[in-house]
Write a structure and sequence with these properties.
With 375 residues, the chain is α+β, with helices and mostly antiparallel strands. The protein contains 14 helices and 14 strands.
């Protein structure tokens, strides 16, 4: 279904659509993740992890750590998609069986087989248990430091689909063996019809998560599927071309935008609420810095890895949304059991009573989410 070209869609329409579509009415944890399709994870805790900060706006009575606590009982998987995070099992299966880009040596394959047998015999295994049993030693990691070779091997086996994350203990992944029956029943990834169907479904998942998307971002995210589905790397360009034919589309102020074909961004149904939202840098509202700048007219940056002396916004500045306006950012931290905050604004700070009440309510919700005492 092609969006009717005579329907005028403005940047204001796209902004309202982006907010109201992503920040939907809070629901259950399972339904929220099903609707998002994918929740990005990040280990930084400032004042909570990204996955929790994302879900708290979309899940009723959500508390920090609820996803980790409830994950073993939900039909979810941790895995790499366009980045690392949590997916409904049905979405996860779209990428598997995954064919890795590199071939293991005979020695490495033998080592992995031994670890797999160990994990399968135990039911699940912590990396510390694997390291104690096999004594694989150390390897150089991506950051130039050293990591346990057992942890690195478990990560690779997880990526290849041999293992799954069964649960976390103190933030550390505990692994279990993937079911061989699931792999044997899967479609042949070399079949062209399977490749096209799966890639179309994965692209649609991207669009449902991040819509409306500027054309450049859509292309960037489709390119990231090389990580989630490396077996279909050669099919990405064709999948992108098909997507541009079936998605809703408009060219506004010189930028091509795309969204699910059944949506109408100009509809009056897209009405952001009047609350203040403090958003993680990894929230789907914020993740695409290009779209952020187009919709709100200023540049947001995550400065966690910038030297403190060069930071303009702060270590983990959280964009601050009020209604349709992205006013600035907030830096939050917990000190001696109390929530402390600093605000920054791209323009004059609103002086209205309505804003102050909305901000107070947002900070109160954050305290509840972190299970802190109110001052």
């Amino acid at each position: 279904m092609e969006y009717h070209r005579r329907m005028r869609v403005t940047l204001d329409h796209l902004r309202r659509y982006a907010i109201a579509r992503s920040l939907f009415k809070p629901t259950t944890l399972k339904r929220a993740i099903d609707r998002l399709g994918f929740v990005q994870a990040d280990p930084i805790r400032a004042p909570a992890r990204a996955q929790d900060l994302t879900l708290r706006h979309r899940v009723l009575a959500y508390r920090a750590g609820d996803l980790e606590r409830r994950y073993p009982r939900l039909p979810l998987e941790e895995d790499f998609f366009v980045n690392y995070g949590y997916l409904p099992r049905a979405n996860h299966q779209l990428m598997h069986p995954r064919t890795a880009r590199t071939v293991w040596t005979a020695a490495r394959a033998e080592q992995a087989a031994a670890v797999l047998a160990f994990v399968r015999a135990r039911g699940s295994a912590h990396p510390r248990e694997v390291d104690a049993h096999f004594a694989h030693g150390k390897v150089k990691n991506w950051f130039g430091g050293s990591s346990n070779a057992s942890t690195e091997l478990l990560d690779v086996m997880h990526y290849r689909g041999l293992l799954r994350v069964a649960r976390r203990e103190g933030g550390t992944r505990v692994y279990a063996a993937r079911s061989p029956a699931a792999e044997s029943a899967a479609d042949d990834p070399q079949d062209l019809a399977v490749a096209n169907s799966r890639m179309d479904a994965l692209v649609d998942l991207i669009v449902r998560k991040y819509a409306p998307l500027p054309a450049v971002t859509l292309g960037q995210l489709v390119s990231h599927l090389r990580g989630g589905a490396p077996q279909w790397t050669a099919h990405r360009a064709a999948a992108l071309a098909r997507a541009k034919q079936r998605l809703g589309h408009v060219r506004t102020e010189g930028i091509d935008w795309y969204w699910p074909a059944d949506d109408r961004p100009s509809s009056n149904r897209w009405r952001p609420d009047e609350g203040v939202r403090l958003l993680t840098p990894f929230d789907p509202m914020v993740w695409d810095r290009r779209r952020f700048r187009l919709l709100w007219g200023w540049e947001y940056k995550l400065e966690a890895y910038v030297p403190a002396s060069k930071r303009r916004m702060g270590h983990y500045a959280m964009p601050m949304l009020w209604g349709e306006e992205m006013l600035g950012w907030a830096n939050l931290k917990v000190v001696d059991g109390w929530l402390e905050y600093e605000l920054g604004f791209v323009g004059p700070r609103p002086r209205s009573r309505a804003f102050q009440l909305a901000l107070n309510e947002a900070l109160h919700r954050m305290q509840d989410f972190l299970q802190l005492q109110a001052r």
